[in-house]
Automatic annotation (TrEMBL):
It is found in: Membrane. GO terms for biological process: calcium ion transport. Keywords: Membrane, Repeat, Transmembrane, Transmembrane helix. The lineage of its organism: Eukaryota, Metazoa, Spiralia, Lophotrochozoa, Annelida. It is a multi-pass membrane protein. It comes from Ridgeia piscesae (Tubeworm). Residues 639-706, 837-896, 954-991, 1029-1064 form the PKD domain. One of its GO terms (molecular function) is monoatomic cation channel activity. This is PKD domain-containing protein. Residues 536-562 are annotated as: Disordered.
Amino acid sequence: MTINMMDADTGELLASQWAAAPEYLTQTNHTFLDTKRYTLFFNVSNDVSDANVTLTFDVDVPVTGATAVITAARPHEECTLNVIIEGGTRPQFYVMWDTEFSAALTNESYFVSRHNYSVIGIHEVSISVQNSVSMSNFTVDAYVSYDIADLTLSQVDYSDEPTFRNVTFLSTISNGTHVTTVTTFGDDFFTVMYHDDPPLINRFSHEYDAVGDYNVTVESFNHISSMSKTITLTVNVAIVGFSVDLPDKVITGQPFDITFSVEHGNPVTFKILKTTKTVEKSASALPVASNETTVPAHKITFLINSPGSIDLQATAENTIKGEVDTYTKFVSVDVYDVISDLSVAMEDKKVPYAKTGEEIKLIVSLTSGSRVGVSCDFGDRTQPETKLYGTREAGGKTLEYTHTYARAGNYSPSCNASNIYSADVFDFDTVVIQNELPAIILLLSASIVAVPDGAVTYTVELTDMVKLPTNPFCNWTFADGSKRIVYAGVKMVFQNSLLIIGNNGIQSTSYRLTTISLHKAVKRYLRVGGQLHDQHDGVERRQRGRPNDRHTDSTRGIPERNPCTGGLATIKIKGTENVPDWKETLRQYDAELLESDQSSRVGDVHRRANARVWRFDYRERNNVALSSIAWFTANTLHGTDITYILDYGDETKASEKSGLISDTPVEFTHSYATVGNYSVRLNAFNNVSGDRANLDSLVIVQNRISKPDIKLTQTHKILSTDDPIVTFTLDVASGRAKPTDVHVTLTFPGIAVIKHFVGTVWPAEIQCNFNHIRAGDANGNITLTNLVGSETLSASIQLQERIRGLVVTGPKVAKVGETVVITVTLDSGSHMVGNVDFGDGTEEIIPKDSITRHFNLTHTYTIADTYSVSVRLKNTLGSVTEYSDTFKVQTSVGGLTLEGDDIVKIPEGVLHLKIVRTTGEPASTPLTIDATYSPETEDRLRTQSLLDTDIELTHTYGRAGDYAVKVNVSNDVGSQILSKNISVYEDITELTLSVSESDDKMPVTTSITHRELTFSVDYRSGTNVWSLFKFGDGVTDETGHKSVTHKYTQPGNYDVKVTATNPVQTDGVTAMMQLKMLAPLGIETFAFNDTVTFNTSAPFSVEMNGKRDEICFEFKFTDDAGATTTLWRGTPRSVCERATDFMTKTFREISVPTGGVDLPYVFPRVSVYDIRVTVLTVIEPDVVFHGTVTATEKVLLCSNPVVTVKTEGDSPSNPIVTRRSAGIELSSINFDITNLKKDASVVLNWEMFEHDIDTNTDTPKTMSDYGVEQGTNTIGISPHTLPYGLYKFTLTVELIGFEICFGSGDVFVSIVKTPLDVNIKYGALRLVGSNKPVEMNAADLSNDPDVKEGGSDGMVFEWYCRKEKEEDARSTVVVMPVVVTKDSRQHEASHTLKVANSEPPPVLIE
């Protein structure tokens, strides 16, 4: 069987295959190369038949890399889906949008589909990409979201504990769905949160490890929008345990350390302030590491220049939660001046002399020192008290000490100064105390004296030889200025012809002396053996001179006798007038003796024998300059009669010299006329021996190089680094000889060029390339050299760079009045000068030294405008001008205020603000206004003008609160932040008032007096509400609280009113309620018999002091065996059911209209019963009363005791009378008690009544209220306790265990008034003077005995005056009665005055 597979479209045989049997499955394989739809024709045949089959199928490349991108959208906006495949043919795209289906068959590798969602959410989109050979199914999410709106970020809490720096933030978004929020905390930590639905309120915390400033940023984004907010947060550690350490005492001007420390705190700024003067010094203490909680101790070096007790204020501060926390400590330090320059001087004494008995004064002074104690010792065993300088500066101040010496002598005072830091001692020079000088007689020995050997004798005689002056001396001063001091008993000074005789400056006498004539004497000098002798004064003066030169000595004018005899002092007087100077004479003579010796120099001439050996030599070596003299020298070592012939080689006549000897150089000279090389021959022969010899030498003759003849030129003095080649040209001046064979060497720093010019090549050029040196000035040398000399010429060049790449950069914007920096940069350039035009009419020359590759120019603009700066630079190679970009100079923002509402009312909530310029110039525009109505929203406004009109801002608040509005007005050069605090309040609505008892929060409308009630006000809306409560009893609570407490003291119905107000609702909202107050319920009486007979009915009666509509009485009877019977009576039943053991069968509902109940009860057996009555109500605690009843088998009978009063007090007309100030005691002994049963137990009871004698009625009184104390048998009435009046005291005698066996008796006591105690000050009699005021005073010493410590309060004093008699002519007796009244009491007293006769004295009455 043959199977053929053909392409039906083309008829191409694709495959042919033979199969053995038809039952087997036959596979035919073929690889299709084209991607298309194929139709195949299969022919199956054998020898007897064939069959045909047609098959259609697609050949495709599988789909690979199918992806989809979908855009997010807002509701009712289209989402766009882009499906892309990397490979595959004839793809089919299927998209399912919720219920909407989209499909396409395309040959493209992408597909776009769109859909509009109306509902926000994440919608799943199903995508299928397939062809005939592959399929790819996947889904994508389509986000339909709202835009993010009103993103806020704020710091709401901050813990500044030293070990816990946790900050809580609040971030809110008013709108936006599918929001991802990333918060970065500024310290490498961040958080990510996702939120589906609005609004988003995110409260989160973060703990910082270190202090510092952090930028906290929250960024919220979804698929369609994004917003971000950043706040700056300062994290610090609060200061705890601030302390200051400093020394107690310091020295002025000497630095000392003040150590600051804190237990916790970081960072901290420490300051020290001198409180008495404005001296401040501060330092910041930074932590060792930013994560430390405490800064280290810090020292501030401080000095104080003024002594005293100085108060210092030390502070430590840092910033916590945006506010500066300051901690202050006040310390003090004692500052001392060190004592320096202690000095002591005697006042008005130039020399330390004084007379005996004269007071002297020592002045003690210090240059510096404080709190100094000074003590002086005068050296005569007397010591004054120590004196103290003030507590502050002592420097510049003085202390004075006065003293008088009693005896003549020499004394050494000393003073000691000391304070806590230093001490100094001053030892004063000797103080000389002398007796006064007596009268003196002066004698003069002569009036004519020869000089220099003449002498005059003065004799001083004292008239009083008893009291001699002490420590005298003579001080002679002569007309020629010479002085001599001789101690001779007195002081004598000779001035011209005046002698002053004194005693050490304390006393002096002047004498006019006879004129003394001085005559000169002539000196001669003797020279002996070259030595000059001065024979006049016996001193040898050795002088140089000729031998045997002799002078003799002669003297004229000297008196024949010596007048210097006797006296206390003998003094030679040397005269100077008209006496020749012998020293000058010697100097002149010495000049005549000077001589100079002549000497001659002698030399020997040595000759040697003839020799045959000779030598030839010449000067200048082998090189000779043209026209110069060439020297040739011939010489032989041995020989005589030698002849030299020298041929110069220039065709001139040879030179010949003969008859010469050896070892004698012979010189030849010659001058060459032309330059060239010459061969010189020297012929020498010995005429004696006939020996001959010759010597040849080459002499080079060249022109000498002469610097003045050389002319140097160069192609450029200034050259560019772009073409740094210079040609130097050397030439010889016209008419001057040109040097030959010249080597030229050119040297500059880093460069050397050598060139050889052979022959005479002039002008000569040498080229140099300066490409290896930097731009600048370079100096070099050009050296010309040949065989006969060299010269050096100087050369210089200036290598400049062309100016390239000039860029002038100004600021983007600048502020009027501030310095603007203009930056100038260059790529290249040198040797530049320039100028700058700042564009405002100001041009400046740029200093040459300041122009570099990068330099700055500064300028201050005074007018706001737009400017461009131009800079022009130039050098020899050219100039460049460049302009900066245009920039603005603007006026900064300032002088603004924020005006408008302080209070905003909700629900309107509209805030109106205005930005007003009050001072300064208008700021440059445009302005940017950022308004933050924290924490609500932020607005931004841009405006072009803020010149004349105000800018209005509005904002609507949605909720009440206190808001800080910040408005930042800025332009490009500055800003001003304006702030205003706004309070937003809500209207008060639906005000309600309720009352509850403090121990029960349930509202009540009925309560009990004296019980504390809580009044509360509530409202549906309203902020900052202030409540005024009026309780209806005249009491008002004005504290403004929402809840207050109050107690009512009287029962009744009260109308309670509350008025609520706030800043936007000043009229207020009122709520009212009615409250019923009841008096506290209590048992008024509980009546029963103490002893009853068992099995008989005993009555029990309970009377209440008030009435309750809902009340229950619980009676419990408990016998001595513990058996209890309980009965309940009352209405309604629910009140009694409050009892824990309530039983229905023992309850009986009865009406209690009077507030009391009567209950009969039968005691079942003989026993002692404990009776407990409990009264239950709804609005107050239970009232409990106890009692005891004895149930017996029978009742005992007895007769009543008889009680009668023994003494007075038995009736109101015969009471016991006692004064209120005295008190009284009553006891049973005041009564006779009879008819008592034998062996009966007796109980005594007292009762007190106030008795009205007119109505004969008694009013019961509680004795304890009046301080009446009751004992077993007595009662005591203390002084000052009972008011005035009549009282009845009843004594009841009761027999215990008997039925109605008691008796009573009454005693009456009358409390009466005590007479007033009146006393007059100064006694009964007083003697007073005439016309003198007299004080009459009875109030100070008078009192009411019935008032405890009352004094004279309430007492009225009336004074009278009467004249009694005149005892004699000198006095009168006056009596001053006084009448003192209080209530019904009156008392009189008198005082007698004995007054001298005159007008009656004034009387002062009190």
